[in-house]
Amino acid sequence: MTERTFAQGWAGEDRRLSYCEAGSGETIVAITGGGGLPTRAQALLAESRRVIVFALTPGPGMPQQAAQRIGAALAGLGVERFDLMGEGAGAVAAMWLALAPEAKIGSVVLAAPAVLPGDLPDEAFREIKRPVLVLSGTKEPSDVGDRYRALLPDCHFMFVYDAGRAIGDERPEALAFIAREFFERRDLFLVSRENGMVFP
Amino acid sequence: MKASLFCAARYMGAAPHDIWPLSGEYYSGDAAVRSMQTTFDQFRCADEFGFDWVTVAEHHYSGFSLTPNPMVMAGALSQLVRRAKIAVLGPTLPILNPVRVAEEFAMLDTMSGSRVVAGMMRGTPNEYVTYNINPSESRERFAEALHLIRRAWTETRPFGWLGRFYQYRTYQYRTISIWPRPVQQPHPPLYMSGSSPEAGEFAAKNHIGIGFAFTTVPLAKSAVQHYRACARGAGWKPAADNVIYRAMFHVADTDEEAFADMSTLPPRISLVDQNKAIAEGVRQSGYYGADAMAQRQRTSRRELADRIALGQVIVGGPDTVLAQVRRIHDELGAGILDLVVGAQLGERTLHSIELFGAKVLPRVREL
After folding, report:
1. Which of A38, B212, B242, B356 falls between 20 and 30 A from B341, CA-CA?
2. Which of B103, B58, B59, B52 has its CA nearest to residue B81?
3. Closest residue of B to A188, CA-based?
């Protein structure tokens, strides 16, 4: 599975919302802050899961309205249950999507989330009851994730060593690994299941 | 210029000095206890006679040093040595759990009343065999571990870590959260080896002091210049205390006595050179980096006169020793001289420490 394996599709009202999709199995919805190809991390996740990627484009009403459009597009695609990933500026839209009453979301991973703008009514995010894992690259200021950590009632926080804002391309194996663990096991991902035995 | 006393806690029983790893068949518990007590006596003496620091380090599987965990020795020194700073130079970072290292340093800083100096080392190459770590991963492990330790010391809120070599999971933002924390803020002074160009560049970029052990003054001089140039590029100017130079020393009342004492010593063979298979395996792994030849040369076997000329050994009466120290200072601009006990000769070694403290150190401070 590579970044180029993703197929492009159109969804939503008038089929004007573009997305990329690859893989099969339980669905992960990823909302990214920039355009371009899906990241290497998303390609790795698509080896065992169905991954649908929406790339936000700058525009009015962002990001709450973007979340509404993505929610409607997913309904149109018949996707009811999914795990959610928000990257960069896509993290805030992912949070709004996680708040939607109709969303049946497992857990949420936010990779290098953008700083929450001060004018957002982000106190609403306190209502997100799903477990959220916030990842912050060590090349970024260490307080980027603070607001998320303060707001989210069930928030986990990890530094991703040697990464900046593009964790999905800079440390793809690490991001895919920890996201897969978190989506599958939620809070229990704390306890490692990796085999430490050298030889049986 | 300041001075530190480095006593490696050498095993004082009868055992070969040129085999690594050294078989336990040579080991005597009584001799080891005597060795530890002698080490404590020497550190106490250094503290009493004005040395600024005392130094401990990590070595495994050898009579060369009985401190495979220097943190344990430093813990004892935090109570024995009342005034001097306690320099752990250092843990062999790439073979250890970095969070454990952060915790141990914080504990030492607390126990000693903020007197700990934190050297982070890659160790001698043979140490990679000790815990079965691939030496080719050494630099990357070192860099990541150091960044993680700094985070563990300075982040007030708990965090998880998703590294290349180290992973610590997080549970509701309650994972890495060390207790105790360092007393010195933001953390104890940091040092690392500056012998290779890669190390000098890394240290300069990350505002870390450098140290040299068992090198030569010409090699160290070139490395210090590189470090200072890299620091300029990174926008800061290292102070004299950012550079440590380590040399073996022995002082007696006269030059003749000092040289006679030193002549009783066996030639120094570096730990890695005591095992040809390890030396070759480490070389093939790429452990040494860009200037591999120079790195290998610094541990070559040499006659005493050559070692003095190259600044590896400081030996003589007080005036001769001062002249040798002055030359090292003038060549390197190093602010800390880390003096390794050269000859384990009982009372004569204690006298050497006393002489340096009483007759040389006051004049070394003026340099």
Report:
1. B242
2. B52
3. B171
Token pair of A176 as six digits:
């895919």
Taking residue A187's Cβ as centre, other Cβ atoms within 10 Å add up to: 14
What residues contact B256, with CB distance under 8 A and at least 6 apart? none
Query: Global pTM?
Result: 0.89
Ordered strands of the A27-32 beta sheet:
A7-11, A17-22, A50-55, A27-32, A81-87, A104-111, A132-137, A155-160, B160-162, B167-168
pLDDT in tens, B182-226: 999 999 999 999 999 999 999 999 999 999 998 999 999 999 999
Q: What's the pLDDT tens digit per position in B153-170?
A: 999 888 999 999 999 876
A 112-171 residues inside an 8 A Cβ radius of B? 133, 135, 138, 142, 146, 149, 154-162, 171
**Interface size, chain A vs chain B, as Cβ–Cβ contacts under 8 Å:** 64
Q: What confidence tens digit (pLDDT) does each residue in B85-104 have?
A: 999 998 999 999 999 999 99
CA distance B5 to chain A (A): 36
Helix or strand (DSSP H, E) at B245: strand B243-251
Rounded to two decimals, the ipTM of the complex is: 0.81
